[in-house]
Predict the 3D structure of the following.
Amino acid sequence: MKLEDSISKLTGIGPKKLKALESISIKTISELLNYFPRRYIDRNFSDTILLKHGEIVTLIVTVIDSYLAHGKRSRLLVGVKTKNHERISLVFFSGVNYFQSVFKTGMNLVISGKLEYFRGLQISHPDYEVISSETEEDFVHAGRIIPLYSLTESMKRDGIDSRSLRKLMIQIVDEMNQKKILISEILPKPILKKRNLLDRNSSYSEIHFPTDDKKLQEARKRFAYEEFYFFHLLMNFKKKEREKIKRKLWALPHSQTAELIEKKLPFELTPDQKSAIQKVTSLSKSDIPYACLLQGDVGSGKTITALEIALHYIDNDVQVVLLAPTEVLARQHYSTIQNLLSHSPFMKMDLFVGKEKEKTRKEKIGRLKSSETLLAIGTHTLFQDDIEFANLGLVIIDEQHKFGVEQRESIRLKGKNPDILAMTATPIPRTLSLTFYGDLELVLIKSKPKNRKEIQTKWIKEDKRALVYNSVKKYLNQGRQAFIIYPLVEESEKVDLESCIEAYERLKELEFKEYNVGLIHGKMPQQEKERVMVEFKKNNIHVLVATTVIEVGIDIPNANVLVIENADRYGISQLHQLRGRVGRGEHESFCIMITAEKVTDEATERLTALTQSNDGFYLAEVDLKLRGPGELLGLRQSGLPDFKVGDIIKDEKLVVEAREDVLEFGSIGDMEKIEMRNRFTEGRILFPN
Ligand code: ADP
Ligand code: MG
């Protein structure tokens, strides 16, 4: 048997099972071997059943008799005896007829289940297996820690269960242990020694059929390490590859336009903003392109920071693209930047959003191609094939977690190795940033502008809604504005949309009839959305009823009250983002989260965390604990691979060690290249390289 052989070589596998396994991409021995158990149960034989009441026991027994007992519920009682001649009844309440036909006097069984006492010792509905003699059984399913595998519906339908997988797996592992199949080591020897890792061959054997718990942990550790090692190796490889393609020096050390608008700003940049601009522009002095993550909590002023950086390119006639995840935000950026630049001679910018007249679009595309436009601001529409740049030097991605990997890559490929500036408000815990952004420069804006007051956050039950509206009115009367958010987590949820529109009608007619109430949601025509945002910005709309289309980025400093309906339906970071829509000016601001009287325990934890802290970093840590890293970063999108064994939170130490080792020992031979390719499908790890 060889690793690349088809699994049809194994005994006990017919066409049906073959097909079922194929459906989860298992065709070869090696692929099957890499189908790791989901969990394990300890099925070591119990030597005695004395004093084992209430415990799970695994025993070899012989059937003595069996009979149907009639009563309130009829049941089958199968009497068995252990090697020590102790008698136990196996009780079956359902499938009585079937089980009656299974158990015959004299039969040998391995049974496993919880030992109970009810007029004698009994186990109800035990796991069992018929064996022909006490020694014949290879102890595949009992007498050891046994593996349980994840099963899809189609696998179950075609007769594949953990038991049959074990029967297949043991054939491979047996051959491995007899050295008929050899699994070669793929980690460098010095690393195995330094980190005290189990060799690969034994690890495969132990991960499927562990000798004991200690060995199982060793095997697990080895595979986790291996995953992290190859991941870091790949990151490092990509970085080197990228650095090979030198680029022109794009950015100027000084930008006149940046200096000009800085003088015109109604505020002074914070020290963190200044140093971020400094740091990023200094990176552009090298002929190796940089990828940089600008991280600053909501409202910390990332937009102006990014603009100033961009101007260092623009003043040098190099093109910059600024991507925003929503049209509303793209439009806002466009008008903010237009205002900021209105005194400067530079006006070469264009907005690219969704549907436009064919002619307008063509003209805009022409201006990009001819390099007449130096700053392109827009949404996903910029990924389209007909968008071409003459000399794209910097890609700015606002709210970068909202973009998919392929999208980020496709925009990057529109330039000749441009610099990348990704922006986010989601703080990234240390291990994650090491793994995820291994070779990304991290630039932080820690402090917020001086004049900001803490946002007051309250959690209110819905029976007090009238009181909430009263205090909203108090602020409206002072000239402020308010948001009322209705949950529409997915833009496609029709019912939610209807309830949002209904609420808008009601608020407009009743509770807020003395005020101008506006509505904005994702399904509205673009022009309408734009009109509403302009009116709101001008304070012609006092109360804006909205779905989460306004979640990210929107900046209306005069709005100081945000009411979130059904707040329990959002995650922590989404609530924090939403809350960031207020507290952006000098006014004291409020976030009021409304829920039903009763919410789940997790929702309670989330909402309490929000009321206790305005600190995005702290909240991200709470979020991480409650939900795990996948949810926090939107990992599916983010490009971090699914590690099969490794857990980037629990195995933090291994993550760090693997990275160190890659830098110390890592080399990319052909073998490593193949291994990397096999492990990580291209698309997934493209960004942030
Ligand atoms: P975010 O980091 O969430 O993207 P923005 O860039 O939208 O934040 O900035 C939020 C608000 O703060 C904007 O109205 C912006 O004009 C203002 N702002 C930015 N920098 C400063 C500063 N240094 N002092 C005062 N206000 C600032
Ligand atoms: Mg922003």
Remarks:
- Residues 302-303, 398, 553 surround magnesium ion (ligand 2) (CB under 6 Å).
- The first strand starts at residue 39 and ends at 43.
